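Title: Comparing notes on inverse folding

I've been comparing how different people in this forum approach sequence design from structure. To keep things fair, I'm posting one structure and asking everyone to reply with a full sequence. Here's the target:
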């Protein structure tokens, strides 16, 4: 993340809103935190990264450890001709898994081998039976099942994986400072792929963004799945997730609610942003939430 700008002078809420929308630090009433340093809100941190995502990714790609592993992957992946070759090279294997957000599964080599062996073109393939679509994405990027020895010659296997690695690293580093920023960046990336309320429920991170945005209790996750999905689709027009501007409005609401639940500053996010996001909690939504029988009964 870029270094924080100098601590701002006290400003009005109206001025603060303008600064926030320009991607600058949201001012606290005192203009600083208790230690006298500048504090950046969840929304502002997210916007600083998102408003010039290309520059943010370039910065991450130039980090010595990222550049080193990327160069190794770029040089070596073309010589891999089989799943055995791929899994025998720990650096390539770990790089590809991290690029797909699966680095925590690196130990499960038999599981990953099955994913790659069956591929993702057949609806009955192992990866397609898993609720987590990251495995299918890995199988598509490294399509040994469909392309054999040519699997690593595709753009998906080369520049696609490299781009994914930079994005994953960016999101992880953002999460080290503020997990709300990581969730917002992740949602922004995944939004165009969401086709239904069930897609939210199949992804813990997307589900958390929804619950936080609409201030729902964790117990909501225990309600009947079909009812949860219906409520999600009632609350969010799924087609709007294809529109970056509307996704931005939704994430503005999310970051406000995240800040309220996990404050990184002492400023009042609702006073700064007001209710302009268009994603407030309507009376109809509250009635629908209250009508759900939590616990799945």
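Reply #1:
Here's my take.
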């Amino acid at each position: 993340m870029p270094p924080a700008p100098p601590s701002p002078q006290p400003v009005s809420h109206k001025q603060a809103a303008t600064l926030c929308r320009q991607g600058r630090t949201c001012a606290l009433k005192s203009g600083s935190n208790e230690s006298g340093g500048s504090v950046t809100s969840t929304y502002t941190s997210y916007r600083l990264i998102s408003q010039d995502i290309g520059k943010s990714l370039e910065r991450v790609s130039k980090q010595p450890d990222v550049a080193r592993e990327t160069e190794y992957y770029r040089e070596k992946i073309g010589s891999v001709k089989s799943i055995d070759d791929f899994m025998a090279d720990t650096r390539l294997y770990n790089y590809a898994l991290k690029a797909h957000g699966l680095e925590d599964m690196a130990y499960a080599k038999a599981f990953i081998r099955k994913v790659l062996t069956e591929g993702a073109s057949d609806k009955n393939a192992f990866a397609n039976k898993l609720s987590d679509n990251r495995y299918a994405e890995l199988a598509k990027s490294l399509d040994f099942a469909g392309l054999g020895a040519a699997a690593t010659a595709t753009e998906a296997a080369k520049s696609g994986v490299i781009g994914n690695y930079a994005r994953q690293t960016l999101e992880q580093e953002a999460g080290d400072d503020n997990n709300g920023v990581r969730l917002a960046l992740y949602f922004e990336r995944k939004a165009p792929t969401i086709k239904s309320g069930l897609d939210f429920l199949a992804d813990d991170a997307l589900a958390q963004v929804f619950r936080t945005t609409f201030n729902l209790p964790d117990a909501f996750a225990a309600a009947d799945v079909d009812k949860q999905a219906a409520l999600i689709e009632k609350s969010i027009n799924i087609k709007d997730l294809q529109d970056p501007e509307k996704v931005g409005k939704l994430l503005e609401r999310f970051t406000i609610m995240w800040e309220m639940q996990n404050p990184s500053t002492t400023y009042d996010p609702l006073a700064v942003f007001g209710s302009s996001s268009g994603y407030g909690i309507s009376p109809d939504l509250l009635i629908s939430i209250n009508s759900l029988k939590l616990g799945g009964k």
